[in-house]
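Backbone-to-sequence.
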């Protein structure tokens, strides 16, 4: 089974936005006074989520008349709200991985190999 191209575009927009929010949240935590291990982990997660957001924007099919979602551009998303705690950020990241697993089950690599490879790469390096 695979997904329609318009649905794939929506997934790419949704996943890029979710990764952008995690990029901002982990970036916030990477700059907070904490144990050095926590700062390093958050800095590494920040980089990972930024790269994933860029990968989803690059993967998005270009469909005439269907504009992509706007990019956050490093500015905190007003819908992100207060970054309450690191545990909440970690829970959001885990929830996104669950959504990736569900998406991967719907992708047939014979029909959409690039999306299958991107999801496989993400799921192999949480």
């Amino acid at each position: 089974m695979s997904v329609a191209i318009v649905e794939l575009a929506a997934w790419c927009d949704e996943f890029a936005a979710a990764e952008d929010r995690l990029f901002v949240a982990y970036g916030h935590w990477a700059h907070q006074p904490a144990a050095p291990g926590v700062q390093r982990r958050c800095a590494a997660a920040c980089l990972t989520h930024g790269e994933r957001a860029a990968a989803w924007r690059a993967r998005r099919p270009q469909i005439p008349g269907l504009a992509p979602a706007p990019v956050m551009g490093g500015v905190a998303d007003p819908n992100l709200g207060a970054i309450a705690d690191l545990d909440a950020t970690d829970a959001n990241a885990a929830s996104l991985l669950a959504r990736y697993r569900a998406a991967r089950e719907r992708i047939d690599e014979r029909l959409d190999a690039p999306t299958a490879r991107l999801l496989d790469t993400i799921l192999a390096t949480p």
